[in-house]
Design a protein that fits this description.
The chain is α+β, with helices and mostly antiparallel strands. It is built from 2 helices and 9 strands; from the N terminus they run ααβββββββββ.
């Protein structure tokens, strides 16, 4: 019995030592990296355009989808759709994507909508829904993977970067 207790204590000491060593490595993306406002890429569709902006505060993120009646995402012209989705987020484990990008998983829980939309606004997201993605930061740009209802996202979308406000 004493031998088994010694083995358990030594094992716990080794696990504690290894755990302490691994905590010194920094995550690929931290909450500090995300904090603040991010402006999305302007996508043009004929005479209209749309953009998604992000705002990270504490453990929450606001995802603002905006559609414009102009091809340049200019807020000076009439906006015909402006809805903000509110989420609580939690950063998960770090991983390396198949193309070699060091990313961090993100789990977002839907909390509700703010804003107005002209025309019909249809979305199948319900309160409390968990959505998953990955996040990657390089220099002053932030990139996400697709947003999914399953935790299997492994590809970064480099075509739609977010820039710091």
């Amino acid at each position: 019995m004493k031998l088994n207790l010694k083995i358990v204590l030594v094992s716990l000491a080794v696990i504690g030592f290894v755990g302490c060593g691994s905590s010194s490595s920094s995550p690929n993306v931290s909450a500090k990296d995300l904090k603040g406002g991010w402006i999305g890429t302007c996508d043009t569709n004929g005479t209209n355009s749309n953009r998604t902006d992000l705002n990270f505060v504490d453990n929450r993120v606001e995802i603002r989808d905006i559609k414009f009646n102009n091809p340049t995402c200019s807020e000076d012209n009439k906006i015909f759709y402006d809805v903000t989705k509110n989420f609580q987020y939690l950063l998960g484990e770090d991983m390396t994507t198949p193309n070699g990008s060091d990313v961090t998983k993100i789990d977002m829980t839907f909390l509700g909508l703010l804003g107005i939309a002209v025309g019909d606004y249809v979305d199948d997201i319900k309160l409390g829904t968990h959505l998953y993605s990955i996040v990657y930061k390089k220099d002053d740009k932030l990139y996400f993977g697709e947003i999914s209802k399953t935790d299997n996202v492994n590809k970064v979308d480099f075509t739609h970067p977010f820039s710091e406000k």
